[in-house]
Each structure stands twice: as structure tokens, then as C-alpha cells.
């Protein structure tokens, strides 16, 4: 259901999930995305560079990026922690919304992804507000704590899903009262509801959710979402 004439409102090549996504989800994503998250030379160039470099097409969608952007404008965070940079597309949406003096620390395992992200952010004039650290996030997080880099005001968890329980624990250690924690991809086409699932991503997400539910310092919910990436969702929590 792309607009007539073959011109898509959203330039987001995603061969796998475009098969999963229902046509009306795509049409609605393109409708709202075209109006509210239409992209521009820098955002479009970053997505194109990510695909040209062969990075997996698992960047947040434009509307999800805009969601993070709106969240940053609402919270006015001085320090943002992102776990899982990929090509820096989500980073770019957040960095553009930062208040004066705000910065993002983004952790990425794959050096190739980090290189592509650095170039995208450099080209967009945003690298002075972003630091990317390469390596396993679970190796960096203790060092970040030891160096006193926290507390972070917003933490976006979007890396390897089996580690989500540990990422949530680290997020709590690096948080203050009022810190907002967002976890991407908690629905996974509905697979998360299968208590018997052997899928490591589902198990990690379910354990992370139980921790969230049991943690008295957290007030949390999940927003399910559909669109060009298929059927997925964000967990959102605030530290009390
Ligand atoms: N936030 C990005 C998408 C991230 S995709 C966006 O929306 O644009 C997930 C990323 O997490 C991948 O780049 C992957 O290499 C990275 N990753 C996987 N395991 C990791 C780990 N142990 N530590 C840090 N990053 C990891
Ligand atoms: C996958 C990871 C993501 O962060 C995402 O948004 C979509 C898919 C994945 O690993 O399949
Ligand atoms: Mg994700």
C-alpha cells in the first residue's frame, strides 16, 4: 500500500520484516512517518550508509526514532546511555533533541558498526555530543560505573536480547530517581507471550520483564507497536 506512483513516504528498506508487517501497518507508518518523522538528508544518508555497509536493517523505524527524540525533549537529559549503537540511527534521533550540554554514551560490540555510526554522526555534526565505546557492553558497564560517569537520565537498551536482565540491573546501578529506561524489541511478533519458548531472546526479555515487575524502584509498562518493522514493542520504566 505504498503511495501511488511507487514513491514511498519512508525510505526504510527492511526485507525481512516487510514480509511480516501487514500492508495497513506499513501504510499507517508511512502516513504518520511521512508527516511527523519525514527524515532529511542526514537521517536518510545514515540509513543508506548502514545498508551500503551491510549492517542488518534493525535500526529503529523513523516514527520510533521520533519517539526517542520526543522523549529526549520531554526529559531534557544531560546524560543518555545507549546500549546497542548499530549505525547510530537511533543515536542521531536522540542527539538532535539533546539540551545544551547534553551528551550520549553509546555502547557497541561490533567495531564495523561503530565505525559506520561514527561516520554517520560526524557527517551530521553530532560527534561532539556522542561517545561510542566498542566492546561487549557488559565489560564496559562496570568501568562506566567505576569512572563515575553516571547517573544517566535516560537509558536506551537495544543490544543483544539475552543480556537484557543484566542490562536492566546495570541501568538501575547507573540511574537516579527519575531516570527513564526504555528497552526495545520486547514483543518480537508476539513470541514473548510463550512461557515455554526456548528462544534465547524471548527468555532474556521475559527475565528482564520479571525483574522489572519485582523491582520496587521501578514503575514500568509496555507499549506494543506495529509498523514497517512488524510487530514489536518498547518497555518503558521510571526509577522511583
Ligand atoms: N539502536 C540501534 C539498533 C541497535 S541493533 C538503532 O535503532 O539504530 C543492536 C546492536 O547491538 C548491534 O549493532 C549489535 O552489534 C550490538 N550488540 C550486540 N551484542 C552486543 C553486546 N554484547 N554489547 C554491545 N553491543 C552489542
Ligand atoms: C533485532 C534487533 C533489534 O534491535 C531490532 O530492533 C529488531 C530486530 C534482531 O536482532 O533481530
Ligand atoms: Mg531494536
Features:
alpha/beta, 7-stranded mixed sheet, 9 helices, binds S-adenosyl-L-homocysteine, binds 3,4-dihydroxybenzoic acid, binds magnesium ion
Describe this structure in words.
With 240 residues, the protein is an alpha/beta fold. The protein is 42% helix and 21% strand. It is built from 9 helices and 7 strands; from the N terminus they run ααααβαβαβαβαβαββ. Helix 3 packs antiparallel against helix 6 and helix 7 (137-146) runs parallel beside helix 8. The model is unreliable at 1-6 (pLDDT under 50).
What's the short story on this structure?
This protein has helices at 15-20, 23-36, 41-52, 62-75, 89-95, 111-123, 137-146, 164-173, 200-214; strands at residues 79-83, 103-108, 130-134, 152-157, 175-183, 218-227, 230-239. With 240 residues, the protein is an alpha/beta fold. Strands 3-2-1-4-5-7-6 form a seven-stranded mixed β-sheet, with helices on both faces.
Unique bound compounds: S-adenosyl-L-homocysteine, 3,4-dihydroxybenzoic acid, magnesium ion
Shape: globular
Low-confidence spans: 1-6
Give the tally of β-strands.
7
Helix/sheet category: alpha/beta
Please compute the radius of gyration using only Cα atoms: 17 Å
- How much of the sequence lies in strands comes to 15-25%
Binned, the helix content reads 40-55%
SSE ordering: HHHHEHEHEHEHEHEE
Chart the SSEs and their pairings:
Layout: H1 15-20, H2 23-36, H3 41-52, H4 62-75, E1 79-83, H5 89-95, E2 103-108, H6 111-123, E3 130-134, H7 137-146, E4 152-157, H8 164-173, E5 175-183, H9 200-214, E6 218-227, E7 230-239
Parallel strand pairs: 1-2, 1-4, 2-3, 4-5
Antiparallel strand pairs: 5-7, 6-7
The structure holds S-adenosyl-L-homocysteine, 3,4-dihydroxybenzoic acid and magnesium ion.
